[in-house]
Amino acid sequence: VLVAATDAGVCMVAFDDADERLVVAMRSRFAGAVFAAAGAADDPARMSRLDTWVGGVLHAIAHPRQAVDLPLDMRGSGFRKTVWQALRMIPPGDSASYGDIAARIGHAGAARAVAGACAGNPIALLVPCHRVLRRDGELGGFRWGVDRKRVLLERERA
DNA sequence: CGTTAAGCTTGAA
DNA sequence: TTCAAGCTTAACG
After folding, report:
1. Measured between alpha carbons, how far is A72 from A92 in angstroms, rounded to an integer?
2. How far apart are CA A125 and CA A47, in angstroms?
3. Is residue A2 within 8 Å of A53, Cβ to Cβ?
4. Structure confidence at residue A45 (pLDDT)
5. pLDDT tens, residue by residue, A28-60
6. Which of A87, A110, A135, A145 is the one with CA 20 to 30 A from A19?
């Protein structure tokens, strides 16, 4: 997992089996970002703010049912930010359809656009786009792999 | 069931 | 500004 942040808060959380791909994804979104390898996340004394946030993300991964509340720096169009905001209202273990979210933010009929906002969600997990499923109950897609989406949901329901 | 067309936002041309 | 494309969906054959 890769966690990135600005002074305002976490601006990106991404999953991938290959670190290089995470770095590439990171650079393509935030050119000129500064990198650091993880490691000190469990050492309170040396925790910088970033380490604290990284720790929060790791905690969220370890305890799927527990709601985490880290400051987020969401960069995107007004519509997307509204969607992401709505996604955060979905509690762990729960889910909604793309159409639900659209209606919920006053854009009934914009289901496909909501899907686009999910696809462009830079903050995985913390902005729970994995809790959005198709109306017919199917998983729908997931930028980081449908299997990963399935696992996240199962862990939250367990 | 598979297929289709409508519908909304985006990013690229 | 125009346009194709997408983690959809309801309607149809």
Report:
1. 18
2. 22
3. no
4. 44
5. 898 877 776 655 544 454 458 888 999 999 999
6. A87
CB contact set of A28 (below 8 Å; sequence gap of 6+):
none
How far is A52 from A23, CA to CA, in rounded Å?
21
Is there a catalytic annotation at residue A129?
yes
H-run or E-run covering A158 = none
Among residues A72, A123, A124, A129, which one is catalytic?
A: A129
Q: What burial class does residue A137 get, using C-beta atoms within 10 Å of its C-beta: 0-12 exposed, 13-18 middle, 19+ buried?
A: exposed
The whole-number Å distance from A101's CA to C3's C1' is 26
Q: Which nucleotides of B are covered by protein (CB under 7 A)?
A: 6-11
* CB proximity list for A112: less than 8 A, separation 6 or greater: A98
Q: What is the pTM of this model?
A: 0.92
> Counting runs of H as helices and runs of E as strands, what totals does chain A give?
6, 4
